[in-house]
Design brief:
heterotrimer; A mainly alpha; B mainly alpha; C alpha/beta; B: mainly alpha; 13 helices; 71% helix; globular; C: alpha/beta; Rossmann fold; 6-stranded mixed beta sheet; 4-stranded antiparallel beta sheet; 10 helices; 36% helix
């Protein structure tokens, strides 16, 4: 009734091309941004940032990245954890080597370095397709983690084999290290997320996105109508790895503070991100957000209910969590293979016509 | 012969035996992939679950005892009996058949016609579910699996090689037995798929689902059958690995070892799985032996993958996979 | 017809100007292993004409089209385009030279909307790089809007306005064929290849499609090479016809000439072996 498009005429192709073509969506988007930037920062505490917001924002960035590669360009990757590790270790080396440069640049350059590594590991995708490629990306996962564990230069020869984020600040506010305020952590992650989500939207709405989707839907036809498969795949790997690298850098420097490759960026991380985009929706920006939120919130909720309220031992709760995550994934795939994003779209389509569907 | 060379030969032999076990796990993948086009990531967890069930039944564990204790505050753990190995194995096999039926009934049936990637994801979900379910049912602690397989060093080989070369080869009895059993299993499967009626139906399904349906083959029966066989292969693999290094979570990671084997051998080829397994088993042992010490060791984690990756760049369909013909 | 077809250009009976040779195929031979799909075939395509390739099933027509569009590399022979010999090229490079095509079994991008599919036809006309696209404002946006206008013209021309935002996967067969044509047309190709544009259509749809092909040729002056089975359609539409059988060329000329060619009649009606 209130959610409608009647009377919302488009008079130019520019209007027709905008991200939120329906007026109410547009309003909702600005309200959400305003709440996220202007209201929440005043109320967040450590628990909420560490348990919910920071992981949600960072995983959402990683999910956007993987969604570019898998959802848009159709190249399944199981190496996300390894590429996050590249971002994290690159960021660490930069932070230590150039303490006078702002951490924001470190994070972005770490993303750039990850993009280069991503392209290198993406090269075989020209020859290898489908499951063979998915399994091949595991090579990058295992090799990179091994590399960061075995070559001491990467962790500056620290005795523990860990990397620890030194204290750095942006505009005079501490954003890394143990003295970081909850709201600063929250805001820096949010800024990166909003900026990168905008970039992801731009990349996927134009010709770049169409080339990726062309390769995904029918690679031979795409090549015959003029898509250079090498360029399309490599740009997808580069863009995707950039996002994932930034996520890894933030995950280490802002969220964890200390990291060890095998533990923080193991294969389970790769699967986690993959689940996010599956549950959220392949080839959808909104889906990346929804999936990340779901996979972050659900364990928190389960833990609160099972351990907090029912007093179960944590290991039993963890086993049950595994069951529920697995079960939900299967359930989602059966009920709605296109994920939460599709459910959201369907709901909106119904709402547009409500209450007079005929 | 020089000491180094003999040592390398021993490493190779051990690699071959590890390779047989990789091949065994890979075989489970190939069976399911051929019959239903599903890349079953849960194969490793199936092996873990089968082994857990076997140990649980054998030792008379009460299923879900931890959960029951947590909810009702009871202190129950075991039934007051032990079950003979052979019956426990049969029971575990029965559970895997039941599992195959459930998978077909509640998952596959609803996912027919979905893109491959969706099916693959579903098996990852299934793997997570089974892992949690198995831990909840039998507990997540390390269990020892003993079904009476011979353990320890093989003295005969040690003595024989010592006499022959003046250098005794260390071979594990268990490895030798595992190799024999795996070889038997492969032979049995090959005969089954080539000469039995169900085997022919299975190959028909693998070739073309709808054509198989139209000549009256029950797809659902074939799927249950093939998942049951895969479950049985998983059980055998679970017994071998479980007897070797105990039953716990890490057992499910053998699936990750089997993946490069598949890439190397081709997803659709049974001989490919076996030869791929042997190549990777030997390759990673030799690489670790020769190059490992120079670059920090523990290269087994990635060597197989990188080898498979490089190989695939030159031959994208693997050693024995079907050549992909592109047309428009 | 009293036309001098060897001249640089001539005017057809209905007043269209046919220009010089655009695409010249010289002694093309294509083998798959031991199977010879195309055997020593030569023919040319002139600017502004509608050129048909016909022949029974398995005659090698689609293979011929695939050679032209660079998907198959012939073992022997040369492809000359606009007066220069074409070096070995990837299909996407061929597309950049101004070739566009449709496919026998529709090759649309099912996950994208009709509009996005048609926009992919414009990809060789858009040059914004990845960074410009990431920023969007500026070159990328301007380019997008300008090319959108071209696509909208094509959409109007082919009368598919109502399905603009529909995902292609949901469309019926006939409309998919039309969208595929739109994608090829949006590229503003100098040579358009149509692989059985009317396969599987009913009479009405065939009439529509014929009208579109003629209009395209007429309004935009697009050079068209097409494969078709429906003899009536071919004879009505095309200026010149190549007839293939078992990978060999058995006839080449105006529809009249081809219709009276004994080899062609034999191939189509069969010969009594006595």
């Amino acid at each position: 009734m209130f959610y409608r498009e009647a009377g919302d005429f488009k008079t130019s192709y520019k209007d027709d091309n905008q991200t939120f073509p329906i007026r109410l969506d547009r309003a909702g988007y600005w309200v959400a941004l305003a709440v996220a930037f202007l209201i929440i920062p005043f109320f967040v505490n450590d628990y909420w940032v560490n348990a919910v917001f920071a992981p949600f924002f960072i995983y959402a960035i990683a999910a956007l990245g993987l969604n570019i590669l898998t959802g848009y360009a159709g190249q399944v990757s199981l190496g996300t954890g390894g590429f996050m590790a590249v971002g994290a270790y690159a960021c660490y080396k930069l932070m230590v080597a150039f303490p006078e440069v702002s951490i924001v640049f470190h994070v972005l350059i770490a993303g750039g370095i990850t993009a280069v590594v991503g392209v290198a590991f993406g090269l075989p995708s020209l020859r290898i397709k489908g499951f063979y490629l998915a399994v091949a990306t595991l090579a990058s996962q295992f090799f990179l983690v091994w590399l960061f564990n075995k070559v001491p230069w990467f962790y500056n020869y620290s005795a523990s084999g860990q990397i620890n984020a030194p204290e750095r600040s942006v505009l005079g506010v501490i954003v890394t290290g143990p003295n970081t305020d909850a709201w600063a952590k929250y805001l820096i992650c949010l800024v990166f997320l909003v900026g990168l989500a905008w970039v992801a939207r731009n990349l996927t709405r134009g010709m770049m996105g169409r080339k990726w989707m062309g390769i995904r839907d029918m690679d031979i036809a795409a090549e015959i109508i003029g898509v250079n498969p090498l360029m399309a795949k490599m740009t997808a790997f580069a863009a995707s790895s950039f996002f994932v690298g930034v996520a890894g850098a933030l995950f280490f420097s802002v969220y964890l503070g200390a990291a060890e490759a095998g533990e923080s960026f193991g294969i389970t991380k790769s699967f986690l991100i993959l689940f996010m985009i599956i549950i959220g929706g392949l080839g959808s920006i909104f889906g990346s957000f929804a999936g990340a939120a779901f996979m972050v919130l659900m364990p928190v909720l389960l833990k609160n209910v099972l351990v907090g309220m029912m007093g179960w031992p944590t290991d039993l709760a963890a086993h049950l969590e595994f069951m529920i995550v697995g079960g939900l994934i299967v359930f989602f795939l059966i009920v709605e293979p296109h994920g939460l994003a599709q459910l959201w779209r369907l709901t909106k389509d119904k709402l547009r016509l409500w209450p007079f569907p005929h | 012969m020089s000491e180094q060379l003999l040592f390398a030969a021993e490493v190779t032999l051990n690699g071959l035996m590890a390779g047989v076990l990789y091949a065994l796990v890979a075989l489970g993948f190939v069976l399911i992939f051929k019959a239903s086009g599903i890349f079953n990531y849960a194969q490793g967890v199936m092996a873990l679950f089968a082994a857990m069930t076997l140990v649980g039944v054998q030792q008379g564990q009460i299923p879900f005892s931890h959960l029951i204790n947590a909810i009702f505050g009871t202190e129950i753990h075991h039934f007051p009996w032990h079950v003979p190995s052979i019956i426990a194995i049969i029971a575990a096999a029965g559970v895997m058949v039941g599992f195959a039926w459930i998978v077909e009934r509640y998952i596959l049936k609803h996912l027919v016609g979905q893109p491959d990637i969706i099916l693959f994801m579903a098996t990852i979900g299934l793997a997570y579910f089974m892992e949690g379910f198995g831990d909840l049912m039998w507990g997540s602690e390390l269990k020892t699996l003993d079904v009476g397989l011979p353990q320890g060093l093989n003295e005969t080989v040690l003595d024989a090689t010592d006499k022959l070369f003046g250098y005794g080869f260390f071979l594990d009895n268990l490895d030798i037995v595992a190799t024999l059993i795996a070889a038997l299993l492969v032979a049995a499967l090959t005969i089954f798929s080539q000469y039995s009626k169900q085997g022919r139906a299975l190959r028909a399904v693998a070739d073309d689902h709808s054509a198989a349906l139209s000549v009256g083959i029950s797809l659902r029966f074939i799927w249950v059958l093939v998942w049951s066989i895969a479950g049985f292969v998983a059980l055998v693999a679970g017994i071998m690995w479980g007897a070797k290094s105990g039953v716990q979570f890490s057992l499910s990671l053998i699936a990750l070892k089997a993946l490069p084997v598949l890439m190397l051998g081709g997803f659709t080829s049974i001989p490919g799985a076996i030869i791929g397994g042997l190549i990777i088993g030997v390759g990673e042992q030799l690489f670790e032996f020769a190059i490992g010490p120079l670059i920090g060791g523990a290269t087994q984690n990635w060597f197989a993958y990188v080898l498979a990756l490089i190989f695939l760049v030159f031959r994208p369909q693997g050693l024995f996979g079907e050549k992909i013909i592109e047309r428009v | 017809m009293s036309l001098d077809m060897n001249a640089d250009s001539y005017v057809t009976a209905d007043g269209r100007t046919i220009g010089p040779v655009v695409m010249d195929l010289k002694n093309i031979t294509l083998r798959f292993g031991g199977v010879v799909a195309i055997k020593d075939i030569s023919f040319d395509i002139r600017e502004g004409e509608i050129r048909a390739i016909i022949g029974p099933n398995g005659a090698g027509k689609s293979s011929m089209l695939n050679v032209i569009s660079g998907f198959y590399k012939p073992q022997e022979g040369e492809v000359w385009f606009r007066g220069t010999k074409r070096p070995p090229m990837k299909p996407f490079q061929v597309a950049r030279q101004g070739l566009a095509r449709t496919f026998q079994n529709i090759a649309l991008f099912d996950g994208m909307t009709v509009l996005d599919n048609i926009m992919t036809g414009r990809l060789n006309h858009m040059t914004a790089n990845m960074f410009q696209q990431a920023i969007w404002k500026g070159k990328a946006e301007k380019e997008e809007l300008a090319n959108r206008e071209v696509c909208e013209k094509v959409i109007d021309f082919l009368e598919i306005q109502h399905i603009r935002k529909t995902p292609v996967g949901r469309l019926p067969y006939g409309l998919k064929k039309r969208v595929e044509l739109a994608r090829a047309l949006a590229a503003e190709p100098s040579l358009l290849l149509l692989d059985e544009p009317m396969a599987g259509m009913n009479v009405e749809e065939k009439e529509d499609m014929s009208r579109f092909i003629l209009d395209m040729n007429d309004e935009f002056g697009t050079t068209i090479a097409l494969i078709e089975h429906d003899m009536g359609v071919v004879m009505d539409l095309s200026d010149r016809v190549v007839v293939m059988d078992y990978g060999k060329k058995i006839g080449d000329g105006t529809p009249e000439e081809v219709r009276n060619n004994q080899d062609v009649i034999d191939a189509y009606l069969g010969v009594a072996h006595d």
